[in-house]
Design goal:
This protein has about 450 residues and is α+β, with helices and mostly antiparallel strands. It is built from eight helices and 21 strands.
Length: about 450
């Protein structure tokens, strides 16, 4: 589920872009309340089984033994000792997960996770991912991109195109290719064979235009007038995540709150056929994995059945990982979800007013108050799927929050939305959340 649109939405404060972003990386660790945090970029969410096992080994040897997937299909390790940075980097290099020290934070690429697995005609986006990643790392200028700048490669199904990346390449069923800049409603036609070149040219043009104008921005959507708009109207995008369960070309599973223990992670690797694709919706697609492995994955704690209350449910880190939180929101949310039936609107639990990682569009806001929770149906009655971003040390915040006080710029102003809220105790929360998720107006 994508996090919230950035703070440049109408009526919101514009975040400060006069300094470098503080986005964590594999080499730039962030100190959180539960230890240091590392974010390992995985372009396209792609992992070999060997690389996935290397991450599990690192989580156990250096961190808290858990792996956390993000809304860009990346992985975070938490609870790291402050002195383990060199050891972690060595492990990642040996597994091929750190191809460039200078560019590791700009390898932000999402791609359609089901590409090539079903009968949909589109494009070989996995090849695009690998080419784009290699050329990014080989381009000196690309190191000047923000650690939040996002590329999306969509095979035509409209899934990652709905994430409002900075530069999106969309394949058409007839072999056409369109380049979308930010949240533009129109795209630029792209010649066959120049797809990745067009993506890189757009990112470089963004940096050049910023430099020439003297303006400060991390995202194209912050300066929509900076580059010329496209000429081809774009369709509405579905933004649909892969359904969990057996797929025509493999398996799809969900991770509760995007987290898995090292043991669960190894169960995921054991079920795969040599490759994993982590999705921007905190799930995993296993190309070529047989349907009989679903039972093992369900027993390991992965979501394998559609229609669960856990679908489209998310939460910030909360206590004890974040000192700003007023509650252990993940434990409280898990109890509420386990007691519920059915799904409905997206729902997000937050430990404080920052609401790190909340979804876009219409969603149920469950905010810790210190005495319980405040439940609010938030957002417009119908809204587009918003942009993706990862910044905060407690998982992810909106695309334009940042570690520290400036994240307040992307906090939600519930009072300005004209919605009603109800305060509940922990015991009352499950029923109140279930009722709010059924809201249709």
């Amino acid at each position: 589920m994508p996090p919230t649109p950035d703070a440049t939405a109408p009526g919101a404060a514009v975040p400060d872009r006069g300094r470098a972003d503080a986005c964590p990386g594999a080499l730039r660790l962030h100190t959180a309340d539960d230890g240091a945090l590392a974010r390992v970029r995985l372009p396209g969410g792609l992992l070999t089984d060997r690389q996935a096992l290397a991450l599990a080994d690192a989580a156990e040897a250096l961190g808290d033994g858990e792996l956390e997937t993000t809304s860009r299909g990346n992985v975070q390790l938490r609870g790291l000792a402050s002195h383990c940075a060199a050891d972690l980097a060595e492990r990642l290099r040996a597994a091929g997960l750190l191809p460039s020290d200078t560019h590791e934070r700009v390898r932000n690429i999402v791609a359609s996770p089901l590409a090539g697995l079903d009968t949909r005609a589109g494009a070989d986006v996995q090849t695009w991912v690998r080419e784009l990643d290699a050329r990014l790392c080989a381009s000196d200028w690309a190191a000047g991109l923000s650690g939040k700048f996002l590329f999306a490669l969509d095979d035509g199904r409209g899934d990652v195109a709905a994430l409002d990346a900075d530069v999106t390449l969309i394949a058409g069923p007839d072999g056409t290719r369109l380049l979308r800049l930010g949240r533009s409603a129109s795209g630029h036609p792209v010649e066959a064979g120049r797809e990745v070149t067009a993506v890189l040219d757009a990112a470089r043009s963004f940096l050049d235009a910023l430099r020439a104008s003297g303006r400060k921005a991390w995202h194209l959507r912050e300066v929509p007038d900076l580059l010329p708009a496209g000429t081809v109207p774009l369709p509405a995008f579905t933004g649909a995540a892969p359904v969990v369960g057996a797929l025509p070309g493999g398996l799809s599973v969900g991770l509760r709150f995007g987290r898995a223990s090292a043991a669960q992670w190894r169960a995921l690797v054991a079920a795969c056929a040599g490759e994993l694709r982590l999705t921007p919706w905190r799930g995993a697609v296993l190309p070529g994995a047989p349907a009989e492995r679903l039972a093992d994955l369900a027993a390991a704690g992965f979501r394998t059945l559609p229609g669960s209350p856990w679908e489209r449910a998310s939460a910030c880190t909360g206590l004890p990982g974040c000192a700003k939180s007023l509650a252990d929101v993940r434990a409280d949310a898990a109890r509420a979800l386990d007691a519920a039936s059915g799904g409905g609107l997206p729902v997000h639990w937050s430990g404080c007013e920052r609401r790190c990682g909340h979804p876009a569009g219409r969603w149920v806001d469950v905010l810790a108050t210190g005495q319980g929770y405040r439940v609010t149906v938030n957002g417009p009655a119908a809204g587009p799927v918003g942009g993706v971003g990862e910044v905060g040390p407690d998982g992810e915040v909106g695309p334009d929050g940042e570690v520290g006080a400036a994240v307040q710029a992307s906090a939600v102003d519930v009072s300005a939305m004209g919605v009603s809220a109800v305060d509940v105790t922990n015991e009352e929360m499950a029923e109140a959340v279930a009722e709010a998720r059924r809201t249709t107006k």
